[in-house]
Predict the structure.
Amino acid sequence: MKLGNTVRRASAALAVGALSLGLVTVTGGAAQAAASCTGDVSVYGTLSDGKLTYTQIAPNTGDRVKTLIGPALGFTPKAMATLNFNTVLVTSTAGDLYRVDVQTNNTSLTVAGIVKIWDGGWTFDKMVYDGAGHLYGTVEGQLHQYLVSQDKPAGSAHIGQHVVIDTGFVLKTLAAAGDDRIIASTADGRLLSYKINGVNDWDRSVLKSSGWSGVDSLSSPGGGLYYGRTNGGMYWYHDVDPTDGDGSDIAYHGDDPWTRPAGPRACCRPTRTTAPTWRRPRRSPYRAARSTATRSSPGPRTGTAATSSTARAPTPPTSTVTTPTAPTVPASSP
């Protein structure tokens, strides 16, 4: 199997410098994959006691290279998203937003600083970053989007242009697979892919109609690689073309899962070299007509989507952190 030009460009755009996932070229059958990469996949997570973790994965085999346990964050984490190889955004159960600056993840995991960059309002149950300047979060079925303009954001000056994309996004897991592309699983076992075009304008594809109910955490570094945790083990998948909305080309590699620390939330994302263009998502007549014809709702609609031009965080009621009990491992390629 070879990646097409579109996927090659998407993979290159998601390449990470230093401990990174580079251009991926996959060959071989469903049981074994061989990838040519410039580096490994980096995954940050947290333990139940609030300690930061780092896991390095070989993308061509899915093997865990190493896992490091770092210091406690000093607060109870709720959701997290990795901006780049040494910057992680983490929300607390109190609704505050923190920036965690990683100093080293070579032989030990240490941090250079943990900075609160936003007081209150960040009550997302899930949060992901797509590597192209877009930060997404879900809360009470709403999908929110922010633009991030700096590698080390310091608050509303660098995280802004907040909009609510739409309602009805009741999802069990969430991961960013590329520029304005997210994947998610649901409690009833579906694997979904979304292309976000703007407010009230998105396209959804059902990659798998069943088999994913046991996945309690989902991560993707881009390039069509997905990592799902279930029953305490990590399984990896490769989507030959993650942009086609077709899940029939997803290869499942679950014959030898490995156990990783609990609470993974994000994969490492590219280091940004230029700031994204600040824009407000708009709906043109063409967009509106196309969206009505092609998109399908992710679930019951609970209200009308709202937009905001100010750099503020959503403020729905906070909820406590729960650790889902994973059902059985998918018996076949989910």
In short: The chain has a mean pLDDT of 73. The CA atoms of residues 167 and 304 lie 7 Å apart. The longest strand covers residues 250-259. The longest helix spans residues 285-294.
